[in-house]
Amino acid sequence: MRVLVVEDDPDLRRSLAATLREENYAVDIAADGGDGLDKAKQNAYDIILLDVMLPELSGWEILQQLRPANTTPVLMLTARDAVHDRVKGLNQGADDYLTKPFDIEELLARIRALIRRAAGQTLPVLTIRDLSIDTASRKVLLKGEDIPVTAREYALVEYLALHQGEVVSRTTLYEHLFDEDDSTLSNLLDVHVSNLRKKLGPEVITTRRGHGYCIE
Q1: Taking a C-beta distance cutoff of 8 angstroms, is the pair 50, 72 a contact?
Q2: Domains identified in the chain, total number
């Protein structure tokens, strides 16, 4: 999953990016509203973490320019905890609101929940026949057995499972699994799909020639 962090505080921005990468998210960052808006418009993200008080453009102004064309979930991060500030953000298209300082575990739980809901899923465990994907513990189980997968393999199977029944193009998968600093693309996707088929069975991920991949 790919996350955009728009935060002007350099320490918090670095901390959030490091934490999210440790949780196997692909992360892009922006230090001001102008850069944040440009990246939000140009790239495909699964969620945007958006500070309210930013140089150039505020978080509220970014929301106004993004919605309704861009439906990416937006989690507002702000030190302003007045009710009218929260209401303003939600009324302008934010999906959730977290007041600084916040607990990192709560932030991660909210991120997971927003990504699931955007894909039409409400439960933390995605079950497809004998396959279970626990989005909270980030584990993959086959017939109840814990299957060891790499961080990128997990991200791939989770994304396909969240979009079960859809054919997901290679371009879309690259956009959501790799961040702006990742230059080692080439045939990595084929390698990850091949490894997952060896671990989970050849029938789990279907290839649609010329279109992409699918979990039926």
Answers
A1: no
A2: 2
